[in-house]
Amino acid sequence: MGRRVGIVCPYSWDVPGGVQQHVGDLAEALIAMGHHVSVLAPVGDPEHPTPSYLVSAGRPVPVRYNGSVARVRFGPRASARVRRWIAEGDFDVVHVHEPAAPSLSLLTCWSADGPIVATFHTSNPRSRAMSATSTALRSAMEKVNARIAVSEAARRTLVEHVGGDAVLIPNGVSVRRFAHAEPLSGWPGEGGSIGFLGRLDEPRKGLGVLLEAFTHLAPRRPGLRLLVAGPGHPDLSGVPQELRDRVVLLGRLDDADKVRAYHCADLFCAPNLGGESFGIVLTEAMASGAAIVASDIPAFDAVLNGGEAGELFRVGDAEHLAERAAALLDDPDRRAELSRAARAAVRAYDWDTVAADIAHVYETVLAGNGPLTTVVPYRRGERP
Question: Is domain 175-347 in CATH 3.40.50.2000, yes or no?
Answer without folding.
Answer: yes
